[in-house]
């Protein structure tokens, strides 16, 4: 067969600069496959625009064949994103590839990413296909994609557990058929850094046409080494890293974008590679993804955890006061974290509030600032000091509720020693129609949740109900997390309010709103990664 000339990843940037690493973000695709994470169209658009502003080269916007919702989000993202390549995922099937091309039609900067499993285990049990048939499918799928799109990426699913000879043959065939990027996933997060680097070096040494494509890696974090594996692969010659914000993704997640990028930046002496990521945007995007998905970032998470730049012990604080370099290897400002400790209160004005939002990494239009300011004033009436964490909780709450089908209108609870059983009177807006109901329960939360269920009957099971105080003091906002499960689908809802009962109901209906989004999705077969 004739060899197709292939454009290199993200408009040839790597060809121009051999040290440039292409950042391929898959928060909206692999990230959305995290159990419990789901995003509606509006949320996905907001994240895509934030990723573009962050400087991501390629945004994997979804898997168009998976559902109408997925198709629409790829299509709409392709309309608005201008500076990043927009990518869609497709199995090695004509229908998938055509649907993907259709979704990407609005943009000139597009990529079709097609994949098939290549490991003995996956070929035998998942695909039930002989290796030679898989090889044919590689050529067929890449050729089909290249007929519809100049920029094609091919992935060897379960690549790290694939026999080397077969992997070399598949990679060579994919490049010959026109793939400009060949991706080697560690689908099950099994590889170790030295082993994974050796795999990339092996491909560079053995695949004759490897110089015609960019090698990409896609590492899962099952053993906690996804970022280490990605960095080892870059050292060995890979020039695209697939990653997600906050390390979101299937099971234990994918390599975290913020960790990969900051390691490349901070340890440039050991890893002399560059990216186009504007690292000062990292905190803002991390917060947005956390607010939209309801996945709270663990406090000790590298780069974006609440404690990542906090110094608690006296010895550390003393050292920091003398010289920040004593205990800080990168500055908080370099990831967009402003350390200002300005506390707001009920006398703070619009200007101070706006400045605070900017410091915290939020940039809103005037209307959204006005809404947030109104909510801030309400909060400041209930709470003397409004800390940064209060504002983050308040704004995130707003972000999460923008287009909800179910909304809380009012809640009244009777409980305590004189009211047995506790009673909740709830008014909800359901698709803009107001309805109310009074229910009792074993406790005030149970009564309120029973009222929700009476107004909006559903089969979802409550798996987790958790409350945590956003700041110290009895006037602190209560941040409630609720996890629901329905037919194997899980969703996480979150909300914050100074009234624990109000945040409980808001978190519950936030989870139900997400479940409605999830119900639209049907998982296509053979999508396990
Ligand atoms: O983990 C994986 O193998 C994937 C592929 C679809 C790239 O997500
Ligand atoms: Zn994956």
TrEMBL record:
Q: Which GO terms describe its cellular component?
A: cytosol
Q: Which GO terms describe its molecular function?
A: 2-isopropylmalate synthase activity; acetyl-CoA C-acetyltransferase activity; manganese ion binding
User: Which keywords annotate this record?
Assistant: Amino-acid biosynthesis, Branched-chain amino acid biosynthesis, Cytoplasm, Leucine biosynthesis, Manganese, Metal-binding, Transferase
- Where the record annotates domain Pyruvate carboxyltransferase, the positions are 21-283
Region Regulatory domain, as annotated, extends over 407-529
Cofactor dependence is on: Mn(2+)
Identify the pathway.
Answer: Amino-acid biosynthesis; L-leucine biosynthesis; L-leucine from 3-methyl-2-oxobutanoate: step 1/4
Query: Which biological process, per GO, is one annotated for this protein?
Result: L-leucine biosynthetic process
Concerning Gene3D superfamilies, the annotation shows: 1.10.238.260, 3.30.160.270, Aldolase class I
Q: Which InterPro entries match?
A: 2-IPM_HCS-like, 2-isopropylmalate_synth_dimer, AIPM/Hcit_synth_CS, Aldolase_TIM, LeuA/HCS_post-cat, LeuA_allosteric_dom_sf, LeuA_bact_synth, PYR_CT
Q: What is its EC number?
A: 2.3.3.13
Positions bound to Mn(2+): 30, 218, 220, 254
Protein task: Catalyzes the condensation of the acetyl group of acetyl-CoA with 3-methyl-2-oxobutanoate (2-ketoisovalerate) to form 3-carboxy-3-hydroxy-4-methylpentanoate (2-isopropylmalate).
Family label: Belongs to the alpha-IPM synthase/homocitrate synthase family. LeuA type 1 subfamily.
How does this protein assemble?
Homodimer.
Name this polypeptide is given: 2-isopropylmalate synthase
Give the organism the record lists: Varunaivibrio sulfuroxidans
Query: What is this protein's gene name?
Result: leuA
